[in-house]
Input
Amino acid sequence: MIPNILSIAGSDPSGGAGIQADLKAISANGGYGMSAITALTAQNTKGVRAVTLMDPDMVTAQIAAIRDDISIDAVKIGMLGSAAIIEAVTAALSGLTAPVVLDPVMVAKGGDRLLAAEAVAALRDRLMPLASVITPNLPEAADLLDTDTATDRSGMEVQAKALLAMGPSAVLIKGGHLAGSDSPDLLLTADDTYWVEGQRHATRNTHGTGCTLSSALATQLGQGLPLPEAVRRAKSYIATAILRSGDLTVGSGHGPVHHFHAFYPETF
Output
């Protein structure tokens, strides 16, 4: 079965992040991608130039139209932008039993804020308890907890436990911001702790990595895989997408990863 995966996120016209990256990652991982757009952005590999948030009623209408006609096997939630949109998404997903992957997009790669500071509380209180798994990077985890960014594995464990106490079923903290040659991720559930190891690849092409990982994870969950195995597969996918990003020639800043690397011959 090809699972139907809904991405609720903002649009990136450069194609490296947001809805565009989500649909690529969903397709590359064997899913059928659908989308509800929360924001329009003007951005490229060098940064975000402008953001226009969608009317919350339009976000609601997009999700309602899909739910009225198409079965949803998993949901990925990315950029939301405002408390009003968070409330709209929370209400629109009411009663849905499919897995929900929440990627708490707060700040773009270039430092531009993509979630209003006053909306962080709404994200914590309204959406996090609905999530099957949240996938913050280290700065996002610190932002959610209003604390300093973790700098080692023990700090990641402390913050993962604090985030789990806020209501999600599981927490996946991504360790890509740690120093060193490794890029470990930590998956924490109520019952178990899993370290998912990975090697760091020296590249500037990291635009949209969080969007891509969370969408790949949602697709794996939509296929019925248990969470630890879904995380391992999604991690392997994004690692290779980063490794193969040099095959692309896109922009002069933080370039995108190669979402469809499996369908292209490897270049040397």
User: Anything to note?
Assistant: Residues 227-243 form the longest helix (17 residues). The beta strands are 4-11, 32-44, 47-53, 74-77, 100-102, 133-134, 170-174, 185-189, 193-196. The mean pLDDT is 93. The chain is about 35% helix and 20% strand.
